[in-house]
Amino acid sequence: MLGVTKLLCSTNSISTTLEKGRETSTLPSRLLQFSSDKRPVVVWNITNRCNLHCLHCYSSSSDNASPDELTTEEGLRLIDDLSDYRVPVIIFSGGDPLMRPDLFTLAAHAFKNGIRCALSTNGLFIEKDTAKKIKDTGFSYVGVSLDGIGETNDRFRGMKGAFEKGLSGLKNCQAEGITVGLRFNLNNRTREHLAPLFDLIEREGIDRGYVSHLVYSGRGSKLRNEDLSHEETRRAVDYIFSRAEEFYAKGLNKEIVIGNNDADGVYLYLKVLERDPVKAQKVYELLALRGGNSSGVALGNIDSCGNVHADQFWRHYSFGNIKEREFSEIWGDRSDPVMGGLKDRKALLKGRCGKCRFVDICGGNYRVRAESVYGDIWAPDPACYLTDEEIGLKSEIAYNMPLTPGDFMSSPVYSSNS
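-> structure tokens emitted (418 positions)
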């Protein structure tokens, strides 16, 4: 994800902090994206159970847990391995992680082992006593997903009253002094609520706003035709940038971030370059340290059954299972062509992504989205909204593959020679 507030408003202070060292173990969580050793932040979907039925859910969660979900003992051993591997953060996610009875046992063990813990939830289960337990367990951050105001959120997430209940859960966490964030998925069904969501962040004193671009994975793959156009995306990102700067100018301590489209970093750099070339150079240097898309490098995913993925959207492809091999062994094994390719992807990228002059700060964007549209994980990301002129191309480079979803498991696209 891209720290908009950091890059637009705190460039100098970040650079000063990073001059003192960029080892993961020495950096605050907000600056882990700039680390030199790229220890992976792990999103752990500890259960597939959820009381909602969100249209964009990448895990296609339901009210039924898988019989193969990791046991408490397997989860504790996993945490020990993640600690030994120096994983800095575990994001406990789902489904909704609060539907798993041993959540607090697992999180307390991670916290005791020096791993920072964050919670990603719909907020509906967070009563006052639950919020206190979240605080006492050691969670440093709680992100609550709201995809619009009122009925828009309720329709998108599949339950009447979900907006008010989720917001109440967020407020209960605030009352305990927990850092909280609002998570919002940007698509044609929700885009009219982008401004009201920022108003809500300001009005309710919410610490963080996270806007996610749509990723065509899980149930979200059915919404591909409801993604924003490139021009609509640019206008939305412009608005996000402007609100981040507005909050900063007002002296409001808000962190605004965008996720799941690394063209955002390039676009931010180009916007800064128009008005302040000196600052733009510092922004570029920070983006280069960040390196763009980090799937399979500084971001990993473990699903509820122990399968290891490049990120939470790669549920169709696993590098192995922690019941058979430790995460640390799986993550370091480059013999898998996808794992090896993601860790050294520059030469594999095709079309516009392969020719882009900003590949070092974008990282080739989302490979899983390219696969969904072209059936090839190294094809261009169709959601890149930068023009050919902006990325340094004189004319459009065609990528001659049909615009149909790929056959994830039977296609030969997982060869690094593709």
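Confidence is low (pLDDT under 50) at residues 395-418.
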